[in-house]
From TrEMBL:
Cellular compartment(s): Cytoplasm
Function: Involved in unsaturated fatty acids biosynthesis. Catalyzes the dehydration of short chain beta-hydroxyacyl-ACPs and long chain saturated and unsaturated beta-hydroxyacyl-ACPs.
HAMAP family (UniProt xref): FabZ (MF_00406), LpxC (MF_00388)
EC number(s) from the headed UniProt entry: 4.2.1.59, 3.5.1.108
Catalysed reaction equations from the record: a (3R)-hydroxyacyl-[ACP] = a (2E)-enoyl-[ACP] + H2O; a UDP-3-O-[(3R)-3-hydroxyacyl]-N-acetyl-alpha-D-glucosamine + H2O = a UDP-3-O-[(3R)-3-hydroxyacyl]-alpha-D-glucosamine + acetate
Gene name for this UniProt entry: fabZ
Record-given protein name: Multifunctional fusion protein
The species this protein was found in: Chlorobium luteolum (strain DSM 273 / BCRC 81028 / 2530) (Pelodictyon luteolum)
């Protein structure tokens, strides 16, 4: 897929300089309208916010005005839109609002709403973008907290033929390809290469769309209570008799003669704003969902057949990458090729010291998923003096301990202060020792998390020497606060 996209969109080398400082609004601005799916009226007000505030929705129609931060961990539903929630308080269909904020490179905004869903307006982000531009922007003293992608991050959904990839780039670009295998739409692609120059004119006007065959089902499910031919592009993928159109119009609350099959392939002969408007809208949705990361991204994002469900899973991967990088910045002060944590960083994370610190570096780390460590085994190891004289062999129990220390780093990643925490063994299961480990060997230890509940973790670990399995075990451990020192 990557080659396909690079061929389509090439290497536009006109990279622009991305903003350095955070920005918010200069003044507040409001819009009024009806929500697409809930059909409820809502006043949405965008307000200036302080540095590092991010995007937060405030439900002013509910007692005590609860706050819902626009973050990926708060996503609760992706059916025909991205819904976020804290507890029972929800905000539906956030993507068009968030796309406008992200596309205009606004970092901090308080979004007050008098209902559960932003107004759909014309089905695009343009009305929001124009309102935000009208409010003006204010540069803030704090630098932007970019997530800089320096390795390929991939999301694949084979069942639905979805592929989304982020590639390293000191800029932001996004390209989208859609292919519904439907002659009414066919294959389309679109690419955004400069947020500042292209977002408002080329992408924010693109409207949400669906197929005529979907409309009746959606109406029956009560999903598009605010739907209208004026706030969505309906692509004709089936023929309907006049009576069927009348029935459909009644379900949507439209006048009896309001729906006609268009001769241009669009319901009511509506004109597309762009020949590839559906592909552009998919890119717009992608931007809105990426905004849930909570920080701007420097990367080239390539997406084939994306939707809200896949976008959200892709952003979850970006968040794990961001969390891992945050952890690396916290402990690994010198960037080294092929190393996530060196021995100095490891000593800042783990309490172990000579002669019981049994890993030398971490070379791979996927947050809450997998970690790979290296242990260089030398004749200088103190245990070789007695295990065994004339026949030095690394004790199997110490290989298990090296595995546990490797998994311990994976468990301590979520702790703000690892020096106040310690990992304790709870169980060892299915331990097998396949081959002896000798001086001069390099142990490559791979630990894969299988279950994490609160402070208890289960992970499978394997140790290799020159690609051959030498030891494996299933381990269970828990993270606890370090006991207070006795005075």
């Amino acid at each position: 897929m990557g080659i396909h996209f690079l061929t389509l969109f090439g290497d536009r080398s006109n990279c622009h300089t991305m903003l350095i400082h955070q920005r918010t609004l200069d003044k507040e601005v409001s819009l009024w309208g009806t929500g697409l799916h809930t059909g409820k009226e809502c006043m949405i007000t965008f307000k200036p916010a302080p540095v590092n505030y991010g995007y937060r929705f405030i439900r002013t129609d509910i007692a005590e005005s609860p706050e819902i931060p626009a973050l990926i961990d708060n996503v609760v539903d992706v059916l025909r839109g991205t819904t976020i929630a804290v507890g029972e308080v929800k905000v539906h269909t956030t993507e068009h609002v968030l796309a406008a904020l992200y596309g205009l490179q606004i970092d901090n905004c308080r979004i007050e709403m008098s209902g559960p869903e932003p107004p759909v307006m014309d089905g695009s982000s343009q009305p929001f973008g124009e309102a935000l531009q009208g409010a003006g922007f204010k540069e803030q003293d704090e630098p932007k907290n970019y997530l800089v992608i320096d390795e390929t991050i991939e999301y694949h959904d084979t069942l639905n033929s979805v592929d989304i990839v982020a590639l390293p780039l000191d800029d932001f670009r996004a390209t989208v390809m859609v292919d519904y295998k439907n002659p009414a739409l066919g294959s389309q692609h679109s690419g955004l290469f400069n947020l500042e120059k292209e977002f408002m004119t080329e992408f924010s006007p693109s409207r949400t769309f669906c197929f005529l065959s979907e409309v009746e089902t959606l109406a029956n499910q009560g999903i598009i209570k605010g739907g209208d031919v004026d706030n969505a592009v309906v692509i004709i993928d089936k023929q309907m008799e006049k009576t069927e159109l009348l029935t459909l119009g009644e379900k949507l609350g439209l006048e009896s003669d309001h729906l006609v099959l268009g001769k241009n392939g669009i319901l009511n002969n509506r004109e597309l704003r762009f020949a590839n408007e559906p592909a552009r809208h998919k890119l717009l949705d992608l931007l809105g969902d990426i905004a849930l990361l909570g920080m701007p991204v420097k990367a080239q994002v390539l997406a084939a057949r994306p939707g809200h469900a896949s976008n959200v899973e892709f952003v979850r991967q970006l968040k794990k990458y961001a969390d891992r990088n945050k952890l690396a910045r916290q402990y690994q002060h010198e960037k080294k090729a092929g190393v996530i944590f060196d021995i100095n960083a490891i000593q800042n994370i783990l309490p172990h010291r000579y002669p019981f610190l049994l890993i030398d570096k971490i070379v791979e780390f996927k947050l809450d998923e997998k970690i790979v460590s290296i242990k260089n085994v030398t004749m200088n190891e103190p245990f070789f003096q007695g295990h065994f004289p004339g026949n030095p062999v690394m004790p199997g129990v110490l290989i298990i301990e090296a595995m546990a220390q490797t998994g311990g780093i994976m468990m301590l990643n979520g702790k703000n202060n690892t020096k106040e925490s310690v990992v304790y063994f709870m169980a060892i299961d299915k331990a097998r020792f396949r081959k002896p480990v000798l001086p001069g060997d390099t142990l490559v230890i791979e630990a894969v998390m299988t279950n994490m509940r609160r402070s208890v973790c289960q992970f499978d670990a394997k140790a290799f020497v020159r690609g051959e399995l030498v030891c494996e075990a299933s381990l269970m451990a828990t993270v606890m606060d370090k006991p207070a020192e006795k005075k």
